[in-house]
Design brief:
By secondary structure, this protein is an alpha/beta fold. It contains 25 helices and 18 strands. It has an eight-stranded mixed sheet with strand order 3-10-9-5-6-7-8-4. Helix 9 links the parallel strand 7 and strand 8. The structure holds phosphoenolpyruvate and magnesium ion. The site of phosphoenolpyruvate has 11 residues, from strand 12 and helix 20.
């Protein structure tokens, strides 16, 4: 073990020397200042969502409209811009026609009607006239004209309390975003920056995954989002340090500014001074050393200190995550979030496209186990073609399995695709599982089982090969946790979705940094519900996994291990870390930790106690352990 790694066992909550706390007002909301042409170091505080330290130049993702402050130089440029706008409009119109056709054949006319509305907005003569006038008379670029249009409509519509009109604003936004996407595809001004960057965005949405893939992104900062928001999950999946919930950062930072992202403590430092940058570089090196050291254990089996096997599986969203899972030594896939296939696909993938994508994931997966989760949209994952409407409480509303039930043909197609991909003739024998999110009642579980039976019958009738798959239930709604014994009797396995379970138990939105102090996985109520759920499954002999972000956090892992849980699914980057931790844990030591923690009445006490125990059991992991 290297010397530098041993140094990480410094006092847990202490910031590195030269940390922002020593140099600038922590969390002060002042704008970036310059003294005598000098950039002054500023520190901002957010929610730590993906551990590690990044130092790099900012790359700001302003949501849309790049180059909107550029004025067209002459008449030729104006003509070119008009042609560029027309070309983008034609492409957008083709998209909308194709979407309408595909969605209406799969989901019916009603669901597809939205694309006709968008087409009529796209061709609206008044709207087109405004854009062309701004390009010709004001010499605006097409994106700038779109920006102006949106500002005008926003000012107009936002004054109204009419929900219908507000929805129309959302449609205009959608059309404008589509147009802008084609405009930037046609002539995207290539960023002058090269080398590693830190993405600064309002929030990370699935389409940013493309940006992540295209650039060398070493850190992420977002204005909104909490610890288990999908932005955070994405960052952790890529092993990229990230901080969320930093309001106003997009106004304080410009492209090229030097930033530090401390994903363990939740600090963002803008224009770090020499001493601070040096301290963070040292911390970054220690982190990398730890990762390198742990990478060696990826080919070893995961065993506890008692020699008991521990199943460390990967959460994946796409094929490239499967490669990461393999290289990190995961023993299978515990959660395949299939919705990303739909969210990043330009339209609805049909059955054949889904079968192909699922087969590829199965064939590439490490180990034998691959667990599919059916579509889980709604909440923070929007998908317009399923007819998602504005809801006052989207996380409590029409999301996930509730939405799938409303689209039986669509839902059945997905189930058929998984069963077909699981056919034994495709690649080496794998244990494919199919699980259903957000189950709240036994009736829902029975309904999905009956849909699965229908899918089998259809495939038999159609003469298509398929595999028999165990059916799992996700426990992520408190009602399901409380009645887990009744539910688990009718399921083949259970997977605890702690991200949602925590937000619903604490009534605190997992995406809202303002309530992140409440949305805590180590809240005493959460600890008790997890204990009862895990114990119920173990008593019944029902296979149980936990696939929320808690599985990859050292303190909760310690507790869950003590409860008897031996199967965890997490972002691939964390597998080597948890393997290291599992090696140090025995049932007898950790049972007593659980008993102590269950008697503690506050989150703070549990967090502090587990932190101290962890520092004794596995001091090397202090650098990835976060109290937050
Ligand atoms: C969860 O809720 O814990 C979970 C794994 O599902 P998701 O994060 O995709 O909602
Ligand atoms: Mg969930």
């Amino acid at each position: 073990m290297s010397k530098s790694r041993r140094r990480t066992s410094r006092p847990r909550e202490k910031a590195p020397s030269g940390s922002p706390a020593h140099h600038a007002g922590d969390g002060a909301a002042a704008p970036a200042r310059r003294a005598g042409g000098h950039r002054v170091q500023l520190s901002r505080r957010g929610v730590p969502v993906s551990p590690g330290v990044a130092i790099g130049r900012a790359c700001c993702l302003h949501e849309i409209f790049p180059g909107s402050d550029v004025e067209l130089p002459d008449d030729d440029a104006v003509l070119r811009e008009l042609a560029r706008y027309d070309q983008a409009r034609d492409q957008a119109a083709r998209d909308l026609k194709a979407l309408h056709q595909k969605v209406s054949s799969q989901l019916g006319q009603r669901a597809a009607a939205i694309f006709q509305v968008h087409e009529s907005i796209l061709h609206d003569p008044a709207l087109t006239a405004k854009i062309r006038a701004w390009i010709v008379e004001s010499r605006h670029t097409a994106p700038a004209a779109l920006r102006k249009l949106l500002d005008e409509y926003t000012a107009l519509f936002e004054r109204t309390s009419d929900e219908y009109l507000r929805e129309r604003l959302a449609d205009v936004r959608d059309v404008v975003a589509r147009l802008n996407q084609h405009l930037t595809d046609v002539a995207s001004p290539p960023s002058q920056m090269s080398g590693p960057v830190i993405l600064v965005a309002n929030e990370l949405i699935p389409s940013h995954v493309i940006t992540l893939d295209k650039r060398e992104v070493v850190g992420i900062v977002t204005q909104v989002g909490g610890r288990t928001s999908h932005a955070a999950i994405l960052a952790r999946g890529h092993g990229i340090p990230a901080v969320s919930g930093v309001p106003g950062i997009l106004h304080e930072v410009v492209d090229g500014d030097l930033l530090v992202v401390d994903g363990r403590e939740g600090h963002v430092v803008i224009h770090p001074d020499v001493e601070t940058a040096r301290a963070y570089r040292r911390l970054r090196r220690e982190f990398v050393d730890l990762k390198d050291h742990l990478a060696h254990n990826r080919d070893q089996p995961a065993l506890s200190a008692d020699g008991e096997p521990v199943e460390l599986l990967a959460n994946i969203s796409n094929l490239s995550d499967v490669k990461a899972a393999t290289s990190m030594g995961a023993c299978g896939v515990g959660l395949y979030r299939t919705e990303y296939l739909f969210l990043t696909h330009h339209d609805v993938p049909d059955e054949e496209e889904q079968v192909e994508a699922y087969r590829a994931v199965i064939a590439a997966s490490p180990g034998r186990r691959v667990t599919f989760r059916t579509l889980d949209v709604g909440g923070d994952k929007k998908m317009r073609y399923l007819g998602l409407e504005h809801e006052a409480n989207p996380f409590m509303g029409w999301r996930s399995i509730r939405l799938s039930f409303e689209h039986p043909a669509f839902f059945l197609t997905q189930i058929r695709a998984v069963l077909r991909a699981a056919a034994p003739e495709h690649g080496p024998k794998k244990r494919v599982g199919l699980m259903f999110p957000m189950i709240t009642t036994l009736d829902e579980l029975r309904r999905v089982r009956s849909l699965v039976r229908r899918a089998y019958r259809q495939l038999e009738r159609d003469g298509l090969p398929f595999g028999q798959v165990p059916i799992g239930l996700m426990v992520e709604v408190p009602a399901a946790a409380v009645t887990v014994r009744q539910l688990a009797r009718e399921a083949d396995f259970v997977s605890i979705g702690s991200n949602d379970l925590v937000q619903y138990l604490t009534a605190a939105d997992r995406d809202n940094p303002k309530v992140s102090h409440l949305c805590q996985p180590l809240n005493p109520a959460v600890v008790e519900v997890l204990y009862q759920t895990v114990r119920a499954c173990l008593d019944m002999g029902k296979p149980v996994t936990l696939c929320g972000e808690m599985a990859a956090a050292p303190r909760p892992f310690l507790l869950l291990f003590g409860m008897g849980l031996r199967s965890y699914s997490m972002s691939p980057a964390f597998v080597p870390i948890m393997k290291e931790l599992a090696k140090k844990l025995s049932q007898s030591d950790t049972s007593s930790i659980v008993e102590r923690a269950r008697k503690m009445p506050t989150t703070k006490q549990i967090v502090g106690y587990l932190g101290r125990r962890l520092a004794e059991i596995c001091p090397d992991l202090s650098i990835v352990d976060s109290a937050g």
